[in-house]
Write a structure and sequence with these properties.
Layout (H helix, E strand, L loop, with lengths): L7 H4 L4 E5 L2 H4 L7 E18 L10 E19 L4 H12 L5 E10 L6 E9 L12 H10 L1 E2 L2 E2 H14 L5 H12 L14
Parallel strand pairs: 1-5
Antiparallel strand pairs: 1-3, 2-3, 2-4, 4-5, 6-7
Helix pairs in contact: 4-6, 5-6
Length: 200
């Protein structure tokens, strides 16, 4: 599906589905009616976004997640009541689009519940043309950025650890993120829970 206009998503009728694949999984920050495990096909979760604000600075960038092309991604679909959709979209834009590194799109996601329904959900896909697009980094490069990263929302390592814990809570693994978390744990630092602050 194509990118959406700024007005169409807030004026559309009916409930809104939002697909969370990173920090939205463990701290959505908005009211929702339903939370369902879901799968998006066509993009995958990757630490492919340099963080200049929430988990790093332009001088010492951290790394946060984006949906990048190819593969599939398991995450969480949140159903937002129609009456709240404009407020939730405004909140998500303020949170996710601080530097406009994402493309705001509607994607088909498959709900992994008894109904196994397909719904159209709001998702944030990385803009590959943006200066903060990191591309495919080696685990060593990812580790270096995450260790150095600290921004308005705190330490980058806490962001990675919280996401890994959220993935594990859903009963699956993300091989590369888990490997990075193991490396961070091996550094001897405490992997404490993140503070309730904004991400990205």
């Amino acid at each position: 599906m194509s990118e959406i206009t700024l007005s169409s998503i807030t004026t559309a009728k009916g409930d809104l589905w939002v697909f969370g694949y990173g920090s939205l999984m463990w701290r959505p920050g908005f009211a929702f009616e339903e939370r369902v495990p879901a799968r998006l096909v066509g993009e995958h979760r990757a630490l492919c976004v340099y963080s200049f604000v929430h988990r790093g600075t332009p001088e010492k960038p951290g790394l946060v997640l984006g949906l990048d092309r190819g593969g599939a991604c398991r995450g969480i679909a949140f159903r937002v009541a129609e009456k709240n959709r404009a407020d939730v979209v405004a909140y998500l834009r303020a949170r996710e689009q601080v530097t406009s590194v994402y493309r705001e799109v509607m994607r088909s996601v498959w709900l992994e519940n008894d109904a196994r329904a397909r719904v159209s959900a709001l998702a944030y896909v990385v803009d590959r043309g943006h200066v903060q697009y990191a591309g495919r980094l080696s685990l060593t490069e990812q580790h270096r950025h995450v260790v150095q990263g600290h921004g308005q929302s705190g330490a980058n390592r806490d962001y990675v650890t919280a996401t890994v814990k959220a993935i594990e809570a859903e009963g699956f693994r993300d091989a590369q993120l888990h490997q990075l978390a193991t490396m961070l744990h091996g550094d001897g630092h405490s992997l404490h829970a993140p503070t309730p602050a904004e991400d990205r």
